[in-house]
Amino acid sequence: MIGLLTGIVVSTDADRCILDVNGVGYLVSASSRTLANLPAAPEKTRLLIETVVREDAIQLFGFLTSDEQEWFRLLTTVQGVGAKVALAILSVATPGDLLLSISAGDKAALTRAAGVGARLAERIVTELKSKVGKMPAGGATPAGRSVSSHAAASVENDALQALAGLGFRRAEAWPVLSRILVEHEGATLDKVIRLALKDLAR
């Protein structure tokens, strides 16, 4: 089994890339988010690899972070979510987005991914809601932090939506909110939004 590849980026496509590892070209499928963050060819990179062996093929799936790889593994435990659908979900949602969406029961956020309809989105939320508290939220989450309660996730989700309504992108608001909720544990939604606005206005 292959667990890690370090090599030169030869090319990238919409859903895969080729890595040259000591003269051998490995075809690695990945989320569009991962592919977009790879260095341009012919730069060197490292990818964590999930190897899937089937009767007719051996497939390699690549991840820049262990967080994304863990979410891939969790998503594929849901019936109807194969590797392709899991990558589609990870292409439109970061680990932090997924943690929030599933904790809050936001099925609509999941249906943005190709291949995920309303019924499958509901199954994902139902099967994973009790499991996401222990999942990583990505690099935006400070070390040591674990979102273990639905209440905390609800405050984050509501605050993100409020800030989005004020014109702030999720990508810039999420790190600020994560830090605030760690520093001000148990803070009300109003307080979290006020503190976030103060920080984002700098």
Can you walk me through this structure?
Strands 1-2-3-5-4 form a 5-stranded mixed β-barrel. It contains 9 helices and 5 strands. Helix 7 crosses helix 9. It starts with a strand and ends with a helix. Strand 2 and strand 3 (24-29) form a beta hairpin. With 202 residues, the chain is of the alpha+beta class. 46% of the residues lie in helices and 18% in strands. The protein has helices at residues 32-36, 66-75, 83-92, 95-104, 107-110, 118-128, 150-165, 170-183, 189-200, and strands spanning 4-12, 16-21, 24-29, 44-53, 58-63. The longest helix is centred in the last third of the chain and has 16 residues, at 150-165. Mean pLDDT is 85; it is low at 139-150.
Kindly list the characteristics that best describe this protein:
202 residues; alpha+beta; 5-stranded mixed barrel; 46% helix; globular; RuvA; DNA recombination
